């Protein structure tokens, strides 16, 4: 593992944040399987080192844009379990008052500009946020999370061009989990991901997205350089999606083998790997890790129960928040 | 009072708002030194610099999307879309992103962005540079839509749009950029959702939007010569729509025609006519009529293009018929 931060507290926070993401997703999956969650959701499990490694390099004010597979980014950027589960269940206390759900979940107060259900849909928003911050001169950095599937969207090439022309403080973080929905990425993507960014003169990196320290080290460097006006940057993070495209995508042998899934889970799991490293460095004991895991699981279970018991929004909210400054759009 | 062109009025509105609020900036294709193909933004880059008057590549989805993100994070972009026809290129950014962000975030994020664009046929520009597509965006909750009908409205509505905390799409009639109207030297704003009654009348209500306001006023002149008194209403914004003023007028006159340059089918004229029919039905003496652009792609040849848009003569003829109690759609 590459070293980045040198403080045990930082390491433990990164470990705990990855465990929190996994625990959140395990609970969300159970909510779906037990038919307690409206709609469906896209699991982030397996990709935790990406969200945590990057978000730990950001301040709460720095912005991110997220994706349909966005719970991990939301947790990593500082969100609270209760408001997240409330959002997943369409409850009033959700981050979006139940109006967004899983695919639009975001803790806006921590710089999350929203999960986006249009693949690649946030690339303009992230680049525009970077333009804003450059104009305002506040030194903030924006990270645009997207998957390998989104690299097929033309929007990305338009905004990368402008980001490069204008030197915007944005980092394009491509989580290459190998699958574009139900299709192997190698079947939909020609050439290399990094070459695409390099074509615009953007410095591009490709790294192991299962190694949280490597992700954090590179992110911290690039964020610092963005703040100095050296952006934009591109990172391809090679990672793996443990579940199907969404929670209902269970029988997926036709595009991905169980052996492949088992290999990633047993040999390249980001949480297990980092846990082992923490022990080998003498930072924690096996018991310490179990205690963290148990405490997080309890937190998640309590938050789920809280959300299950929480109130739905009143029907009068249906036409609220259509327009800023207009309390009810349909009775104004 | 001084008279200035619609183009100059737009330029003044942008300049005044950029002087007032340094978070306001302008971006789009050829908005800086070129001042747009219509020369509307000429001079702004000299005053505000290339940091706030930004020429973009020809990447409409890209720079509209960036406008959305910039608006969400503390600045107030005016995004210039060179032709209204290019709306089709930016629909995801405008309708899936800008329009829904405030709602989907439970009211926590806002998108104070203005998309300036245009509408209007008869410029001999053929089917991809002549459309009036405001109905497309008016259909999407979360967007506001302004349709200035003169230099006065263009300035007052644009200033209001720039100060609004929501995404606003403002359509200027590209054939009116050189038309002059009285515009005060001193600052003024035109509130959204307040129609203007441009001419009082008692026999029929003509509701016209944007380019069609002049058509309605000319039709009213023609009708006056026949002893028919037409009331002319300009909604000025179609989202929000000042329904009350329109419905009350229709109740008073008992007849109404709605004229709008979008395609007639499934359009703005249909929406306003339906609201009049729903809310003034028992006061009406005739069916509410619609006039829109003909339901064909806009043709190039002047001989064909001129057939596709409503004219004062056609509107006046139909108005006179229904005022006489004749059936317009009997044939």
UniProtKB/TrEMBL annotation, chain A:
Cofactor(s) for this UniProt protein: thiamine diphosphate
Pfam (any one): E1_dh
GO molecular function list: pyruvate dehydrogenase (acetyl-transferring) activity
Positions of the Dehydrogenase E1 component domain: 16-313
Record-linked InterPro entries: DH_E1, PDH_E1_Alpha_Subunit, THDP-binding
Top enzyme category: oxidoreductase
Task of the protein: The pyruvate dehydrogenase complex catalyzes the overall conversion of pyruvate to acetyl-CoA and CO(2). It contains multiple copies of three enzymatic components: pyruvate dehydrogenase (E1), dihydrolipoamide acetyltransferase (E2) and lipoamide dehydrogenase (E3).
Name used for this protein in its record: Acetoin:2,6-dichlorophenolindophenol oxidoreductase subunit alpha
Species annotation: Palleronia abyssalis
From TrEMBL, chain B:
EC number(s) given by UniProt: 1.2.4.4
Coiled coil found in the keyword field: no
Keywords annotated in UniProt: Oxidoreductase, Thiamine pyrophosphate
Entry-linked Pfam families: Transket_pyr, Transketolase_C
Signal sequence, renumbered to the chain: none
Cofactor(s) needed for function: thiamine diphosphate
UniProt protein name: 2-oxoisovalerate dehydrogenase subunit beta
Organism: Palleronia abyssalis
């Amino acid at each position: 593992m590459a070293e980045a931060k040198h403080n045990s507290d930082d390491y433990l926070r990164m470990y705990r944040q990855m465990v929190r993401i996994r625990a959140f997703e395990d609970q969300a999956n159970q909510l779906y399987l037990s038919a307690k969650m409206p709609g469906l959701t896209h699991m982030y499990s397996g990709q935790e080192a990406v969200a945590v490694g990057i978000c730990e390099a950001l301040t709460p004010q720095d912005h991110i844009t997220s994706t349909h597979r966005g719970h991990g980014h939301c947790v990593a950027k500082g969100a609270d379990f209760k408001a997240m589960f409330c959002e997943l269940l369409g409850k009033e206390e959700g981050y979006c008052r139940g109006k967004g759900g899983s695919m639009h979940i975001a803790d806006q107060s921590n710089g999350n500009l929203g999960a986006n259900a249009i693949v690649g849909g946030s690339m303009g928003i992230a680049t525009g946020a970077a333009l804003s911050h450059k104009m305002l001169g506040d030194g903030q950095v924006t990270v645009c999370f997207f998957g390998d599937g989104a690299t097929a969207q033309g929007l990305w090439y338009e905004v990368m061009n402008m980001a490069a022309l204008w030197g915007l403080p944005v980092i394009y973080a491509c989580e290459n989990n190998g699958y574009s929905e139900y299709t192997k990425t190698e079947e939909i993507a020609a050439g290399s991901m990094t070459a695409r960014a390099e074509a615009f003169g953007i410095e591009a990196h490709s790294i192991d997205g299962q190694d949280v320290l490597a992700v954090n080290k590179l992110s911290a460097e690039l964020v610092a350089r963005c703040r100095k006006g050296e952006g934009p940057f591109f990172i391809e993070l090679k990672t793996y999606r443990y579940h199907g495209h969404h929670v209902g995508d269970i029988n997926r042998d036709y595009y991905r083998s169980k052996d492949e899934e088992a290999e990633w889970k047993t040999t390249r799991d980001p949480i297990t790997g980092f846990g082992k490293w923490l022990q080998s460095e003498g930072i924690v004991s096996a018991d310490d890790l179990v205690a963290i895991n148990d405490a997080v699981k309890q937190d998640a279970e309590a938050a789920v129960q809280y959300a299950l018991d929480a109130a739905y929004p009143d029907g009068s909210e249906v036409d609220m928040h259509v327009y800023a400054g207009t309390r009810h759009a349909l009775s104004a | 009072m001084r008279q200035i062109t619609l183009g100059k009025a737009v330029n003044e509105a942008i300049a005044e708002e950029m002087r007032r609020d340094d978070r306001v900036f302008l971006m789009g294709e050829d908005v800086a030194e070129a001042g747009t193909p219509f020369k509307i933004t000429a001079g702004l880059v000299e005053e505000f610099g290339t940091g706030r008057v930004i020429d973009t590549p020809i990447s409409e989805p890209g720079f509209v999307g960036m406008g959305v993100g910039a608006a969400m994070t503390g600045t107030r972009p005016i995004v210039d879309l060179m032709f209204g026809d290019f709306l089709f290129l930016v629909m995801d950014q405008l309708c899936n992103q800008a329009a829904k962000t405030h709602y989907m975030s439970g009211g926590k994020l806002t998108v104070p962005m203005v998309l300036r664009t245009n509408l209007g046929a008869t410029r001999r520009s053929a089917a991809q540079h002549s459309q009036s597509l405001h109905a497309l965006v008016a259909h999407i909750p979360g967007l506001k839509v302004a349709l200035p009908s003169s230099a006065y409205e263009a300035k007052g509505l644009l200033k209001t749009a720039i100060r609004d905390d929501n995404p606003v799409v403002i359509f200027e009639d590209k054939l009116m950029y050189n038309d002059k109207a009285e515009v005060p030297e001193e600052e003024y704003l035109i509130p959204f959702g307040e129609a203007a009654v441009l001419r009082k009348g008692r026999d029929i209500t003509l509701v016209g939007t944007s380019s069609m306001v002049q058509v309605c006023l000319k039709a009213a002149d023609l009708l006056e010569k026949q002893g028919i008194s037409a009331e002319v209403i300009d909604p000025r914004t179609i989202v929000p729509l000042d329904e009350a003023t329109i419905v009350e007028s229709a109740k008073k006159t008992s007849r109404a025609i709605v004229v709008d340059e979008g395609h007639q089918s499934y359009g703005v004229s249909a929406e306003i006519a339906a609201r009049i029919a729903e809310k003034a039905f028992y006061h009406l003496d005739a069916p509410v009529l619609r006039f829109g652009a003909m339901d064909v792609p806009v043709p190039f040849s002047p001989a064909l293009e001129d057939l596709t848009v409503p004219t004062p003569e056609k509107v006046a003829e139909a108005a006179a018929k229904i005022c006489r109690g004749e059936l317009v759609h009997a044939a």
